C-alpha cells in the first residue's frame, strides 16, 4: 500500500500527539508535588553531576541534589547518597518529564511504607 499522506501532515499530527501527551503527563506529575515519595537512586543526573536521578514506584524519574542526609528519619547521623539507596523525598516541582524533590533521609521499602501509613493515619487519611 502506498503512503499518500504528505510529510507536512505527518509532522503536524506528530506534533499534536506530542503536545497532548506532554500536557497529560504534566497534569499527572503535578499531583505528586507536596507528597513524600520513596526514590530508588539510579545514578547521577544526565544534566548535572551535582544531582542524582532516581525513580519512584510509578517509574517516574525524580531529580534530587547530591548532599549528605540523615541515615534514617530519626537519626542525627548523616551519610552520602549512593546509587542503589532508597531515599525519602519531598516532591517540590514537576513538569511533563520529571519530578524534582528535596532528599529527606535514607529509608527502605518496608520502613517508608510503615511510616507513610502512620503519617496518613495521624492525619485521618486512612
| Secondary-structure element order, N to C | HEEEEEEEH
Number of strands: 7
Helix content: 25-40%
Give the strand line-up of the largest sheet: 1-2-3-7-6
| 3D shape | elongated
Summed up, the helix count is: 2
Tell me the span between the first and last alpha carbons. Answer: 57 Å
How is the biggest beta sheet arranged? 5 strands, mixed, barrel
Beta-strand percentage?
A: 25-35%
Question: Any idea what the radius of gyration is?
Answer: 19 Å
Q: Tell me, rounded to a whole number, the average pLDDT.
A: 91
Describe this structure as you would to a colleague.
The chain is of the alpha+beta class and 126 residues long. The chain has 2 helices and 7 strands; from the N terminus they run αβββββββα. Strands 1-2-3-7-6 form a 5-stranded mixed barrel. A two-stranded antiparallel sheet has the order 4-5. Strand 2 (51-55) and strand 3 form a beta hairpin. The longest helix is centred in the first third of the chain and has 24 residues, at 7-30. The mean pLDDT is 91.
Question: What's the topology here?
Answer:
Elements: H1 7-30, E1 36-44, E2 51-55, E3 61-65, E4 69-70, E5 78-79, E6 86-94, E7 99-107, H2 109-122
Parallel strand pairs: 3-7
Antiparallel strand pairs: 1-2, 1-6, 2-3, 4-5, 6-7
Task: Please give a handful of descriptors for the protein shown.
alpha+beta; 2 helices; 7 strands; 33% strand; 126 residues; two-stranded antiparallel sheet; 5-stranded mixed beta barrel
